[in-house]
Amino acid sequence: MGKFPEEVTDAEWAAWFTMGFQVDPRTLDSLKKRVKASVVFDMSIPDADSRIGRMLDGMAAALRRYRQEWVIREESAAIVKIFTEAFKPVSLHRAVTEQMALT
Fold first, then answer.
1. Maximum Cα–Cα distance across the chain
2. Measured between alpha carbons, how far is residue 6 from residues 2, 18, 41, 61 in Å?
3. pTM recorded for the entire structure
4. What's the pLDDT tens digit per position in 5-50?
5. What is the Cα–Cα distance from 41 to 22, expressed in whole angstroms?
6. Measured between alpha carbons, how far is 35 from 70 in angstroms, rounded to an integer?
């Protein structure tokens, strides 16, 4: 803050601590890119549940690696979007997107 602790007002302390809860959009975008890279829809796995499980494991590992587990609670819509974008083939992606729009 550039001041001695005795010179800082309560309002300045509150504002300074509140800054710790604000997420920098650039940091969030960078994290989303990392999570997106870790979510892979592996068509070589024959079972759909196992495919989705592998995607979830990849995402969870990436979030643990960067100590960002809060993203699941706070940015759940972004996580769902990352998952639906990873679905292949295009017909599955389209079907999931249409179904999501209905709910």
1. 65
2. 12, 19, 56, 44
3. 0.59
4. 888 898 988 888 888 777 777 777 888 888 888 888 888 888 888 8
5. 32
6. 13
